[in-house]
Amino acid sequence: MTAAPTSSLVAPQQALPQGKPGTKGIQLDESAVVRLKVLLAERNTPLAGLRIAVKGGGCSGLAYHMEWTEQPKERDKIFERDGVRVFVDPKSYLYLMGTELVYVEELLASGFRLRNPNEKASCGCGDSFTV
Amino acid sequence: MKGFLQIHDPLKPKGSAVGIDLGTTNSLVAAVIQGKPACLSVDEGESKLLPSVVHYQPDGGVAVGQRAVAQLATHPTDTVKSVKRFMGKSLGDAETKKLGSYAFVEGSGVVRFKVAGGNPVTPIEVSGEILRALKRKAEAHFAGKVEQAVITVPAYFDDAQRQATKDAGRLAGLDVLRLLNEPTAAALAYGLDKGAQGLYAVYDLGGGTFDVSILELTDGVFQVKAVGGDSALGGDDFDRAIVERLLTQRGIGAPSSAQIAELLQLARAAKEGLTVATEATIHFEGQPFTVRREEFEQWIAPLLQKTGVAVRRALKDAQVTAADIKGVVLVGGSTRVPAVRRFVEQSFGKPPLADIDPDQVVALGAAVQADLLTNKDRQDEVLLLDVIPLSLGLETMGGIAEKVIPRNSSIPIAQGQLFTTFQDGQTAMDIHVVQGERELVADCRSLARFRLAGIPPMAAGMGRVEVRFAVDADGILSVSAKELTTGVVSSVTVKPTHGLTDEEIEQMLLDSIDHGEEDMARRLLAEQQVEAQRMLLDGHKQLQQNGDLLSNEERGVFVTKLEALEALARTTKDHHLLKQAIVAMDDIAKPFVERIMNRAIATAAVGHRVEDF
Predict the structure, then answer these.
(1) Is B84 a catalytic residue?
(2) Residue B598's Cα: distance from chain center in Å?
(3) Cβ of residue A21 closer than 8 Å to a chain B Cβ
(4) With contact defined as beta carbons under 8 Å apart, do B123 and B161 qualify?
(5) How far is B385 from B144, CA to CA, in rounded Å?
(6) Does pLDDT of A38 surpass 80?
(7) 30-89 in A: which are within 8 Å (CB) of B?
(8) CB burial readout B323-334, b (16+ within 10 A) else e
(9) Which CATH number is B518-605 given?
(10) How confident is chain B (613 residues) per 10-residue block, as mean pLDDT?
């Protein structure tokens, strides 16, 4: 005999999955590649890479974290475009599959953004999200 | 406007992370410096101990530590000590008013002290001042910012007390990385987490409190199995024992408070002297009073016996014996007394771990944890420790995985869900705990199984079982099932990530995406199969009990339709089709159900007059 949820009273129906997230891997938009090259040159470390990670915390549950990394770690996943490398640790990759890194130039400000298809909600601060 | 992401540069120095022991009597701050944890000097005379005392001055200034202690005698209501005892408490709590002679703001809700120099202050604000003082000292030490801290709390602190501690940290401008149980911190300081799995005890005898904790180490994570102690027993009682003997010998029946204060200080010095020497002499009002170590040990023996009672109770609560304990850690300055060490050794049958300064051991352990949580080299290991990587749930009828805690929930978290019995007279429920994103149990990872027995026989759907999933800050999952009419409970504890590599987690997630649609169809089918089964069970039962209400012809149709439904439920893969058949069956059964209802009402109505209704 097994636990049975009452059909009407209690066990809430699971929401249907929101379709398949698109592609796997991490995409680097050309805008990001151009900007990263500039920053790497300014930093005098043309061979360094950008680490993108996901951490617990932030107002929506998870938060993005980006930092410069000189060398990838053993189990990192490495994505490259035009010689610019991005490193993602395997745990963070679970939350980042299909994400695109873009550099946005707006009227008053410009900066990096991650377009993550896994994201269900994000918050105003920009580095916190829910999947 | 949504903000942009910053790129951090690890080559630029970042603030250090510290461990803080926010104690009842003293507080300490420690940090890992060049790979080793060390306590920082925080008070006058390079002392590592900051008395947890805060003095509020009329001009709005605040003094913490020794400078505040100096004001205790003259400004008792403006000087708050032992504020930890007030954390998360309200004025209504019976204990609260007995502590100290403060001027409280009357009214319900949180405790507020009326102090000099401005508005009343809450215990959170007072603790915030202590934390701010520690933060400042640490920043002076590092000549840089200190913004992250692990703060220790007693294992028995409840949610309100823990939240209050976190709030105090935030008030002091600290990002509280984690609250760590004090006994766990002590165990971490000794590196026990890297040692053998098993049970450990922490014997913590401070100035005014005694705590004993039984910890279990599994997969490098400590879990508190039982706690015990006495909130009014500590080293101060040892001092009092000496003072009492001296007063008796001198024939001082009613000592002044100044005499007592002086004597307590002298007695404390004598006690500390007896740790190394076999006798100590107190010079009080011009005359010597000599205490031999054996005498002193006799005087405190009853106090040690009291701690023994708490130790035995904690062992009993943890359902273990002293022989099961792999190691005992000493915490608290009073464990320096040789008689205490001997007593602990006798109680547990093994010499305690005592190499680390027992005043500092908790803070040092907190520093180790803070380092672990922030150190770049080790960050991979802990990066996502605070969220659940895969959903946790249980098996329901039809092999469906019902998720109770969804993936990505941040921990600690607790979720309950209500389930009902499926069959008439069902007296047990098998709880199968599973992990994963797939819709069917067959595709999930099985974590544990246990049975809730002792459900009284009831009609299907009447037995109600509350299943509760709780994941603590260390990622340990406890599942308990409770039948609500009888209160019978059964439970299990597991570590969901045990033996699971990142690659496996990734594969499980990818599978759930790849098989999403197919899984959903299978789940919907399984749900309809369960529904069909429920209908078949009920249909056959009613045929047996109320079959006489149907004509032979009706009965023939009913039975044929039931059999057809049974066959369809067994063979079809199309949940739409099965659902249609179920709805059709429901229509066929309707007249039958009506007659059964009428009969039931008629039976119930026998012996009643119409007016009764």
Answers:
(1) yes
(2) 54
(3) yes
(4) no
(5) 28
(6) yes
(7) 39, 43, 50, 53-57, 61-62, 64-69, 73, 75, 89
(8) eebbbbbbbbbb
(9) 1.20.1270.10
(10) 68 76 95 91 91 94 94 88 86 60 74 86 94 94 88 86 88 88 93 87 93 86 85 91 93 86 92 94 92 96 95 93 96 95 96 95 95 64 53 88 81 82 84 87 86 86 87 81 86 72 70 74 85 87 85 86 89 87 87 84 65 51
Number of domains in chain A: 1
* DSSP-based three-state secondary structure for B119: coil
Confirm whether B574 is a catalytic residue. Answer: no
Distance from the Cα of A106 to chain B's closest Cα (Å) equals 11
Residue A37 lies in a domain: yes
**What are the C-alpha distances in Å from B68 to residues B74, B193, B266?**
11, 38, 21
From the options 3.40.50.300, 3.20.180.20, 3.30.450.20, 2.60.34.10, give the CATH code of B392-514: 2.60.34.10
CA–CA distance, A114 with A30 (Å, rounded to integer) = 13
Q: Would you call A47 helix, strand, or coil by DSSP?
A: coil
Shortest Cα–Cα distance, B206 to chain A (Å): 35
- Cβ distance B418 to A56 less than 8 Å, yes or no, reads no
Closest residue to A66, CB basis, from B7, B383, B426? B7
Contact yes or no for A17 and B395 at CB 8 A: no
**Considering the domain boundaries, does residue A35 fall inside one?**
yes
> pTM here?
0.59
The rounded distance, in Å, linking the Cα atoms of B369 and B19 is: 7
More confident residue, B419 or A129: B419
pLDDT score at B592: 84
CATH code for the part of the protein at B195-355: 3.30.420.40
Residue B129 annotated as catalytic: no
Cα distance from B420 to chain A (closest Cα, Å)?
6
State yes or no: pLDDT of A31 exceeds 80: yes
- What SS3 class is residue B230? strand
Distances, alpha carbon B488 to alpha carbons B84, B184, B430, B457, B463, in Å: 37, 32, 14, 13, 12
Instruction: Specify burial of residue B606 (Cβ count, 10 A radius: 0-12, 13-18, 19+).
Output: exposed
